[in-house]
Amino acid sequence: MPTTLRISDLPAHAGSTVAVNAWVMTTRSSGKIGFIVVRDGSGYLQAVVGKRDVAPDLWERFEGLTQETSVRLEGTVRADARAPGGVELSLSALAVLGPSVEFPITPKEHGTAFLMERRHLWLRSRRQVALMKIRHEVVQAIRDFFHERGFTLVDTPILTGSIGESAGTLFETEYFDLGKAYLAQTGQLYVETACAALGKVYCFGPTFRAEKSKTRRHLTEFWMVEPEVAFADSDANMRLQEEFVSYIVARVLDRRKAELADLERDPKPLESVVPPFHRITYTDAVAKLQGMGSDIVWGKDLGAEDEARLTDGLDRPLFVMNYPKEAKAFYMKENPADPRTVLCDDCLAPGLGEIIGGSQREDDYDLLLARIRAQGLPEESYGWYLDLRRYGTFVHSGFGLGVERTVQWITGTPHIRETIAYPRMMYRLYP
RNA sequence: UCCGGAGUAGCUCAGUCGGUAGAGCAGCCGGCUGUUAACCGGCGGGUCGGGGGUUCGAGUCCCUCCUCCGGAGCCA
User: Protein A87 CA to nucleic acid B71 C1', in Å?
Assistant: First the structure.
């Protein structure tokens, strides 16, 4: 019985007789010669069967193959330039493991509504396989980056009592006898406290926003990585961000060329994503945008169109720094050079928009308490957070990077829903 | 939540001025020894999103509801 191999291992076994377990993507036949293209998750393989070269029952089984049938193929590995992938299999045996009748997703056109209803089957398509592999590479690069730099992973709770930023965008649930609990929309407050224990920390997990967003950049459930660094100011924070983003992009370029090609994503523009990124203050950005015809006024947050105008034509991301206090969260540190603003940054990717929001945190107990009160937040819920400023307070900064937006930007995918296996959106909870 | 668009065959869509429902692909049958979304010939396939109205007659006009898509705001 021949050795069973994954398709990605076949080029090293030219001339050998091997077996492959896989799913049928498509078949073609010219009457006397047949082709089967299969997928096993490691790659794609074309098997060739000649009617005159095999037993009649094998040919019959070939003719009966349908899309997504699971099969065991046996044959000789042969290098052939005509085959997609460089090697093909001259078939000597074929076993149907699991038949597949009328697979709904044909190799022809489908609308997104149709495909989203069948997301569990859509995942098998070449495009979706490439997206999931690149997502995996991004996630692995994130973990490696922080591990290599001495960060400690701290998992923060998903069920929380106190609220992170603004209420009204939180998913609510009952929590035994303790009243309402909320699904976390950030791990930041927790990771800040862990920062005093470990110095350099990050959390990485799902986060939930009940905001009724309907755009190609929003999910209600998405994955976010949030590092927090002790004794780092806003400037150090941005240097970490640009190194981090560049590291992720370089990793994908290095290891996922084939998947980028499957997605027809030109890798060239990604090659210029290296530090330093572009930088502009919010105040300067407003002046520039007004010069470009935007009706933005100082104090208002930048709109999607404004972000597009600022990043249009850029070869790498742009930091917009130091937004007005009123437009940002309560925990951001007041800018000593301009107290109307806070020390923060949004990292805008060209063609997509915000992929990171970061800031230096307010480390003064009285100022932070004043901000909590000014925003009408429930003071009693933040006792533990305020404690961080009572016992050895310290300059610290951090940021949150959205995994799906990062994958969307790197792959050039038009809609964020394809960057996660099972997207959760305002109108979609199935499958 | 607001603004805009769309629901017709399994899929993607066309359907003129209100007058007997169409194409391509998929499926099935046949042909073809190097195909790349193979190709060529044939066949079957319809609650025109639901409900109500106008009309001799509605896929088409009017009202209403539902679903989906895109955009805005919010943000990662």
Answer: 46
Residue A208 lies in a domain: yes
Q: Does A370 lie in the same domain as A266? A: yes
Structure tokens at A397: 């900064």
Task: Say if residue A144 is in the same domain as residue A201.
Answer: yes
Residue found under tokens 């502009």: A280
Domain count for chain A, please give it: 2
pTM: 0.94
Same-domain pairing of A86 and A124 = no
- Check whether residue A54 and residue A90 sit in a common domain: yes
Kindly list the distances between the CA atom of residue A64 and the CA atoms of A136, A254, A312, A350, in Å, as whole numbers in the listed order. Answer: 35, 41, 52, 49
R_g of chain A, CA atoms, integer Å: 26
Estimate in Å the CA A279 to C1' B4 gap, whole number. 36
- As for the ipTM of the complex, it is 0.85
> Beta strand A200-208 with A221-230: parallel, antiparallel or unpaired?
antiparallel
Rounded to whole angstroms, the distance from the CA of residue A33 to the C1' of nucleotide B41 is 20
Q: What is the dihedral of CA A195, A356, A361, A182, to 10 degrees?
A: -70
Nearest to A395 by CA among A239, A254, A238, A229: A229
* Domain co-membership, A77 together with A123: no
A125: tokens are 């398509």
pLDDT tens-digit map of A348-397 = 999 899 999 999 999 999 999 999 888 888 888 889 999 999 999 999 99
Scanning every strand, the nucleotide with its C1' closest to A329's CA turns out to be: B75
SS3 A107: coil
Nucleotides on strand B lying under 7 Å from protein C-beta = 1-2, 10-13, 24-28, 31-38, 67-76
Cα separation, A353 vs A9, in Å, equals 39
